[in-house]
């Protein structure tokens, strides 16, 4: 028992005041051995690991108060990345296969930490429902929490100004689907009308997949009466996901962020300044600091413009959903979860290990293994 406490302390997961019951937990003096509550995140690649880490943070905090034990696992469909170039039906089928794998492995809940996959959430649930009617009730989309968070700023700004501008940064597939503007139109209680796309063909960074790739911009307008309106812009820098997944050098990443943001924002009116920025791709935390610096340098954001990063939002959603189930609570703290494990459908195991170590140098090294995501039959 003492050795276990030392191990957790070495990882920075306990305080000196915590007392663990490793094999069992106590409730009203009665020793009970609880089952591990398994949670999974799913993404087309590594980006969802940021969300898995945020969920693990919430799980550790819950463990301190007597909930758990927890296990967090990330599933990345790197065999089929990037989803941004797949058809809607392919995206739904690939995502359903990965989510189904998580359920087969014992996951209680699956959080889709992939914006592109989330655009097909209804089709994914339809596929899963055919296998087990209860599965759709345990699948959560990152799009829903992101829209709620953005609407907080939009609603507040509309009280003091007639025009509110927002920009959503996402993958080409997410933008081409027009799901985000459709969801925002519903939240704003106005009719959705298609916006205007601009395709920007540029050199492809990952040459093994072709010479060129298409980035996109998009503009839509939601009129809220005679005077007030919300202007929605979208930007889809097509190379970024591959650069993150395949380990582009930092200098190349920075150069891409600089050139791509200059190219994409130049498609909008020069006076455009964003009131809220949604970084609606789970890979973008890697670029978050660069994005903020460049957009400020381009004078496209105000000093108080919020940048929405999705991982923490999903962490909070996990906590809310878990507590709504009124789970068993021990009188003592229980062992916290270890670093989230990673299962990948592709062969980029070693590259992912290097990427995790580089981005999270102070965290325990997670287990990274390959697993086949079988199609849902």
What layout of secondary structure does this protein have?
Blueprint: H1 2-10, E1 25-27, E2 30-32, E3 37-43, H2 48-64, E4 70-76, H3 88-104, E5 109-112, H4 115-118, H5 121-131, E6 139-141, H6 142-158, E7 163-169, H7 172-176, H8 179-188, E8 196-203, E9 212-224, E10 228-236, H9 240-245, H10 250-265, E11 276-279, H11 288-297, E12 307-309, H12 310-324, E13 341-344, H13 349-359, E14 368-370
Parallel strand pairs: 3-4, 3-5, 4-13, 5-6, 7-10, 7-11, 11-12, 13-14
Antiparallel strand pairs: 1-2, 8-9, 9-10
Structural overview:
Helix 13 links the parallel strand 13 (about 340-345) and strand 14 (about 370). With about 375 residues, the protein is an alpha/beta fold. The strands form 3 sheets. A 6-stranded parallel sheet has the order 6-5-3-4-13-14, with helices on both faces. It starts with a helix and ends in a 7-residue tail after the last strand. Residues about 1-30 have low confidence and may be disordered. The protein has helices at about 1-10, 50-65, 90-105, 115-120, 120-130, 140-160, 170-175, 180-190, 240-245, 250-265, 290-295, 310-325, 350-360, and strands at about 25, 30, 35-45, 70-75, 110, 140, 165-170, 195-205, 210-225, 230-235, 275-280, 305-310, 340-345, 370. The longest helix has 17 residues, at about 50-65. The protein folds into 2 domains: about 1-140 and about 310-370, Rossmann fold; about 145-310, Rossmann fold. The chain is globular and about 60 Å long. Helix 3 (about 90-105) packs across helix 5 (about 120-130).
């Amino acid at each position: 028992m003492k050795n276990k406490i030392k191990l957790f302390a070495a990882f920075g997961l306990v305080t000196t005041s915590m007392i663990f019951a490793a094999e069992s937990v106590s409730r009203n003096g009665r020793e009970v051995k609880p089952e591990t509550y398994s949670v999974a995140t799913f993404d087309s690649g590594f980006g969802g690991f940021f969300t898995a880490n945020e969920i693990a943070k919430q799980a550790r905090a819950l463990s301190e108060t007597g909930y758990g034990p927890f296990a967090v696992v990330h599933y990345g469909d790197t065999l089929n990345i990037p989803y941004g170039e797949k058809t809607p039906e392919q995206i739904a089928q690939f995502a359903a296969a990965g989510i189904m794998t998580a359920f087969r492995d014992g996951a209680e809940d699956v959080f889709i930490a992939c914006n592109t996959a989330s655009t097909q959430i209804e089709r994914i649930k339809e596929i899963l429902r055919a296998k087990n009617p209860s599965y759709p009730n345990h699948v959560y989309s990152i799009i829903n929490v992101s829209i709620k968070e953005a609407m907080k700023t939009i609603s507040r700004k509309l009280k003091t100004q007639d025009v509110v501008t927002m920009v959503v940064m996402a993958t080409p597939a997410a933008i081409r689907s027009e799901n985000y503007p459709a969801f925002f139109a519903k939240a704003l209680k106005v009719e959705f009308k298609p916006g205007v796309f601009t395709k920007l063909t540029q050199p492809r960074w990952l040459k093994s997949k072709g010479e060129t790739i298409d980035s996109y911009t998009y503009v839509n307008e939601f009129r809220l009466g005679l005077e007030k309106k919300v202007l929605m812009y979208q930007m889809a820098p097509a190379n970024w996901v591959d650069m993150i997944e395949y380990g582009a050098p930092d200098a190349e990443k920075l150069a891409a962020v600089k050139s791509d943001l200059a190219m994409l924002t130049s498609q909008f009116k020069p006076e455009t300044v964003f009131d809220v920025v949604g970084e609606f791709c789970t890979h973008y935390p890697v670029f978050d600091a660069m994005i903020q610096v460049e957009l400020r340098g381009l004078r496209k954001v105000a000093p108080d413009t919020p940048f929405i990063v999705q991982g923490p939002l999903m962490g909070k959603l996990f906590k809310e959903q878990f507590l709504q189930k009124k789970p068993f609570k021990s009188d003592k703290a229980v062992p916290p979860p270890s670093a989230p494990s990673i299962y990948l459908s592709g062969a980029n195991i070693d590259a992912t290990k290097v990427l995790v170590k580089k981005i999270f140098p102070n965290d325990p090294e997670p287990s990274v293994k390959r697993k086949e995501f079988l199609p849902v039959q």
